[in-house]
Amino acid sequence: HEVHAAEFERTFIAIKPDGVQRGLIAEIISRFERKGYKLVAIKVVIPSKEFAQKHYHDLKERPFFNGLCDFLSSGPVVAMVWEGEGVIKYGRKLIGATDPQKSEPGTIRGDLAVVVGRNIIHGSDGPETAKDEIDLWFQPEELVTYTSNAETWIY
Ligand code: RTP
Questions:
Q1: Which ipTM score applies to this complex?
Q2: In this structure, which residue's CA is closest to atom 6 in ligand 1?
Q3: Is 149 assigned to a binding site?
Q4: Is 12 within any annotated ligand binding site?
Q5: How far apart are alpha carbons 138 and 142 in whole angstroms?
Q6: How far apart are CA 14 and CA 132, in angstroms?
Q7: d(CA 130, CA 136)
Q8: What is the mean pLDDT of residues 84-108?
Q9: Average pLDDT over residues 5-26
Q10: How much distance in Å is there from the Cα of 116 to the middle of ligand 1?
Q11: Ligand 1, atom 16, residue with closest C-alpha
């Protein structure tokens, strides 16, 4: 059938400062790319603490909130938007459980991280948060709509 980019969902994925400092950018991007998802926005940013607090506003009552926001703003983050069928839910599957002690081998956190406070990557947990997070991190014109030739073979 005919594939239109508009029918695919989008999710926000961020490589946190630990993933960047450990040289895991290409490794992480590669897993989403090989799966068949499409990169539609990417940039490197050092978020301010205020920005990190906005990103994690849902967790502001948690005891680890302050440390988490300090950490996210401690260095460069690779902010991305990935597009594809089921990418929000399946992206979380590629990432693995929040606590790397519990994530399965084969997942990004299972293979590449050890503790929950340094779990190298973030992914939106549902359609509403995906939309909110994309809007927080990106201007609309930073998102690129295009058809890749591979799509006709992936779908
Ligand atoms: P994420 O959004 O980053 O994929 O994580 P999540 O939904 O699986 O987990 P969430 O509960 O939303 O936590 C967000 C991030 O907070 C850090 N965290 N630290 N006990 C702790 O020290 C603790 N618990 C959570 C993690 O970096 C987690 O990814």
A1: 0.92
A2: 98
A3: no
A4: no
A5: 6
A6: 14
A7: 10
A8: 98
A9: 93
A10: 7
A11: 68
Q: What is the pLDDT of residues 116-143, one digit of tens each?
A: 999 999 999 999 999 999 999 999 999 9
Measured by CA distance, the residue closest to atom 10 of ligand 1 is 98
* Phi and psi torsions of 27, nearest 5°: -60, -45
Give the number of other CB atoms < 10 A from CB of residue 69.
Answer: 22
CB 5 within 8 A of CB 150: no
pTM of the complete model beyond 0.90 = yes
What is the spatial distance between Cα 32 and Cα 78, in angstroms, rounded to a whole number? 14
Record the tokens describing residue 5, joined without a space. Answer: 């980019």
Q: For helices 87-95 and 25-35, what crossing angle results, to 10°?
A: 140
Least confident of 3-7, 88-92, 120-124, 131-135: 3-7
